[in-house]
Amino acid sequence: MALINLHVNGKNMSVDTETDTPLIYVLRNDFDFKGAKLGCALEQCGACMVLVDGEPTNSCVRAAAEFEGRQIETVESFGNPEKMSDIQQIFAEENVAQCGYCTAGIVCSVTSLFRKTKTPSDEQIKDTLNRHLCRCGSHSRILDAVYRIREVAIR
Amino acid sequence: MSKHSSLSNSPKISEWLDFSQEGELTLHTGKVDIGQRITTALALIAAEELSIPFDQISVRKTKTDVDPNEGYTAGSFSMQHSGYAIKKATATARKIFTQKAAEKLNISEDKLEVSDGQIRAKGTNQSLTYWELMSDVNLEIDVDEDVQTKNTSDYSIQNKKHIAKGMAEIMTGKYQFLQDLKFENMLHARIVRPPHYHCELEKLDPDVISRLEKENIFVIRDGSFLAVAAKQEYKAVKAARRISLAAKWKVEKQLSEENIYSQLTANRKDRFFVEKGCVPSTTREIPELTTMNEDEHITVNAVYQKPYHMHASIGPSAGCAHFDGQSLQVWTHNQGVYPLRAAITEAFDMSKENVSVQFIPGAGVYGHNGADDAAFDAVIIARHIPKYSILLKWTRDDENSWEPYGSAMHCEIQASINKKGKISSWSHETYADTFLTRPITGKKPATRMLSSHYLENALPWPVAEPMMVPHGGIHRNMEMLYEMPEPRLVKNRVYDLPLRTSALRTLGAYGNVFANESMINELAERANIDPFTFRLNHLKDERAINVLKKLQQVMEKDTPEDEQMGKGIGFARYKNSAAYCAIGVSLTVTEAAEVLLHHAYIVCDAGEIVDLEGVRAQLEGGFIQAASWTLYEQVLYERDGIVSRDWDTYPIITFDNIPKMHTYLIENPGKPYLGAGEGAAGPAAAAISNALKDATGLSLRKMPFNSDTIMEAALEG
Hints:
- The structure holds two protein chains of two kinds.
- In chain A, β1 and β2 (about 10-15) form a beta hairpin.
- By secondary structure, chain A is an alpha+beta fold.
- Chain A has two domains: about 1-75, Beta-grasp domain (Ubiquitin-like (UB roll)); about 85-155, [2Fe-2S]-binding domain (DNA polymerase, domain 1), CATH 1.10.150.
- Helix content of chain A is about 35%, strand content about 15%.
- Chain B folds into three domains: about 5-170, Aldehyde Oxidoreductase, domain 4 (2-Layer Sandwich); about 180-255 and about 315-395, Aldehyde Oxidoreductase, domain 4 (2-Layer Sandwich); about 410-435 and about 470-715, Aldehyde Oxidoreductase, domain 4.
- In chain B, the strands form seven sheets. Chain B has a seven-stranded mixed sheet, with helices on both faces. In chain B, strands 13-12-21-20-19-14 form a six-stranded mixed sheet, with helices on both faces.
- The radius of gyration of chain B is 27 Å and the shape is globular.
């Protein structure tokens, strides 16, 4: 056990846990940020995606201790049901989710993409989304919503 | 008594509607929201019929003894069952409330109008709300199925774009999934499974157990069932790995590696002639397969095959249970809380009064995946360690290697056309394992639970009887809507196959429609008639004709001409009783023999549309999931167990091969709801195979259509 200090969603937080505990368990169980989901625990599906120093990062394998001193953002930091971020709002308006299990991770990746550029190419969009799997077949709606976000961002 | 299954079980208005919270209507339903938006659709029906704003209506998550028993949320039946019941219940309630308001306001009923949850006297400022009238009306009366429902021309809520219930919570990480449950005194649990089905626990090093117990980790052993539970989730994850390394298993037999399609035709089987109405006959003999005279007819023979598929939910199954020594509470994301309770009470000899089961959403299930089993596993653990809440999560490996798959299928079709280009004979023999090993109340449900076969008092693996209902599992959608002489349809329910199977979205319909609609195209080609005209020449059903004509129109209008582009179509009415769905696809094949999807055209008649976006999402999602099955998926296994244990060994479709969707719904206000959740899958597979034929000249009849099978087909010519 060791005390691990993390910077999550703008706050310093600490937890006494085993040093090899992957980040996702700390975020979900110790800090109560349940947005990131356990999917494969193999960094294959993207359900656990969070942002680390602004970059989409799988949280299911690497130990929380590795992220000390880094800025971690989870989906909860972008908005809440009463006041969503522009990206969350458009995703909701376009009804992109079916079961919703993969969605929070995708919101993280898309948020990071649009922070870097307001005019991502189709290729950049697909590269970003390709780190995520969806089983309900919501892909076309997610893609359409991202294209709409891009249109709005240009205007 | 009502002939309607849901209303005969739960006839009273009060069993469906609850006005007890001021300004809110709570709907009770036995159907669960697994991402198909049934809660949104039910709320929209109630909002329309009662003129209550959509956001003032909430829908309960089904719980035993509190909500109606509507069996399983399955078969695209939710709108026909719960949708119909809520429609009639709300219409009856509206009538009762309006009568009471007229009496109170001392005015005739035709001078009343309803909006925003208020019943108003027209042209006055007098009004009463449902909640003000609540104490004066009796909702403990039967739903009137002959009640006058709202005139469709007065609809203002249904068939419009609405944001689904829960969508904002999903976007912001606030939607509560079963995997997110948190209780005081909760333990996280993991299972340790054997290498494959046919294994028994031989030895478990007691030193490992005692070391784990010193670390405050519970080790649960019951026969060959092994699990661990710990306060910290990652401790449970690591403990499961340690147990896994320490456990020695005795292998009783290995999985058969013989070609699955050979097994499907050669193994022991029950054979049935499938009669008109797509119902297997217990009396009619199966006629000999004869071939039409060559001078007058062209005959085509083809074999279509699909491998085992997984539900492959993105979130592995989970279950939660709490046992206080007498009563048991269970939380599950399965599709039927009542049958699950029946399995639990039978397995542990408990009375149903002592067991409550509540639905909490998980990741999409798409049929009978690991959800029931995970809940059952949580119960076993909770009974071993009472007074703790047990949150059990399966791993990706558990899910992929233990869920009940959708059966492999082998379809042999022989069909002929005459000189007029009309179908003159049709024989279809379909071979598959069972599509129904869900627990069923009253039919030894405990034996259907995975871990029941590994406990100290192990139950034998059940052998599911053939489903004899119209469009049951294996023979679903064998019968087509096309006019032809009586077809020779044969269902082969095959036994002794290597993998565990059960209900996967559409059951046998996906394989049968793929085979039927591929053969229809092969016949059209021999007849030298375009695929639309050939189909239309064999149809009398107006609604079927309409969806096909609409598809033809939109494909002609939209598709850009491209030499390399292959186009194909597929059509079916799911179970010949749910939604009509015609699908068109355009695609190209790369030099590396990979299929690139460009456009998908979906035309659907689902009767009256309630939740426009929900129907569209189900169709589009159904298309994409079926495209994934068709192009990429097969469960790989060898004698020592399942090989497809992660997303590298069980690849599914990704964002770089998603076609542009063009979805069109035929509007039919006032017509009965026709379930749309499963209608797209079969036609999608056929449209892809027919487009591949158009693009490459190859008849692809064995899934998945990945570069290996396309290359193989090309070499075979």
